[in-house]
Design goal:
It is built from 11 helices and 6 strands. It has about 280 residues and is of the alpha/beta class. Helix 3 runs parallel beside helix 7. The longest helix is centred in the C-terminal third of the chain and has 19 residues. The chain binds uracil. The site of uracil has 12 residues, from helix 6. Uracil binds next to helix 6.
């Protein structure tokens, strides 16, 4: 028997760090009955007395309806577009998102993580996807990287009352894995509409995935950061985007903080110019 703590540690590292249901489900038990028993060769088969015959096999347990896998991906994206574009306020958009079943991440996440801060703020920060703490509370950027983000905001004279914060993906991917391109495309209509409805004067993309989702720029974040890009809304409005390094990356690479600092200063200068 492996040590229980080691086993749990392994599960957590493998991404299985969140219970999905209160009672454990033996998924192998659901698979076992489907297997055909291996028959001994005919020559060696013997009649089995009634009492010793195997009992009728239990029927396979129906898998819980976690996801509508039969719905084609294009249909999910089209539905996301339809729902997102029908929202005329951020509150409606949140409700549409909460009722949308087309993204598999919803079924493993604990909470929808929609936004934090001031939706009327002229500057909006966009991250990638919620982590564990964000998932538990339903609020973006409240874990360690969020605390660093707060310090960086404060360094340029801002706090959450003066900024709006969201993610490109509003549900935590299990084990903080990278969202798949399909998941990003399914969520895209919602985050694009969120930007349209919040109508910030400028965007800050936190990390490569957010920068790519907002600007479609093919370069990696180390090349992109510090260079103004543009996000074009569905209505054709161009919003300047400052791509910068993600706070989680800065926690691991503190020597890079000076680059993020420069990007934040550039964003602050631009914000002042746009709001004066
Ligand atoms: N990282 C993100 O990109 N978003 C969050 O909300 C938290 C961590």
């Amino acid at each position: 028997m492996p040590d229980l703590r080691e086993l749990l540690h392994f599960y957590a590292e493998a991404g299985a760090d969140t219970p999905l249901e209160d009672a454990p489900v033996d998924r192998l038990a659901a698979v076992e009955p489907a297997r055909k028993p291996v028959q001994p060769p005919a020559a060696t088969r013997q009649a089995v007395p009634q009492a010793e015959r195997p009992r009728p096999e239990p029927q396979p347990v129906a898998a819980p309806a976690l996801n509508k896998t039969s719905v084609p991906d294009d249909t999910k994206i089209a539905l996301a577009r339809q729902l997102a574009s029908s929202a005329t306020t951020l509150e409606q958009l949140r409700e549409q998102l909460a009722s949308f079943d087309g993204c598999n991440l919803k079924f493993t996440a604990k909470n929808l993580v929609f936004a934090d801060g001031n939706p009327h703020a002229p500057i909006m920060f966009v991250g990638e996807a919620p982590g564990r703490e964000e998932d538990l509370e339903g609020v973006p950027f409240i874990g360690r990287s969020g605390q660093l983000l707060d310090r960086m905001l404060s360094a340029i004279g801002l706090d959450r009352t003066g900024v709006y914060i969201a993610n490109t993906i509003p549900w935590r991917p299990p084990g903080n894995r990278t969202p798949t391109p399909l998941e990003t495309e399914i969520c895209r209509p919602f985050f694009e509409r969120q930007i349209e409805l919040a109508a910030p004067k400028l965007l800050v993309a936190l990390g490569g995935p957010a920068a790519k989702a907002l600007t479609h720029a093919p370069e990696g974040i180390l090349r992109l950061r510090g260079n103004w890009k543009t996000h074009r809304t569905a209505a054709g409005i161009d919003i300047p985007v400052m791509p910068t390094l993600h706070p989680a990356y800065l926690l691991r690479n503190s020597a890079q903080k000076r680059f993020a600092w420069r990007d934040f200063i550039a964003a602050k200068i631009q914000l002042r110019a746009l709001t004066q």
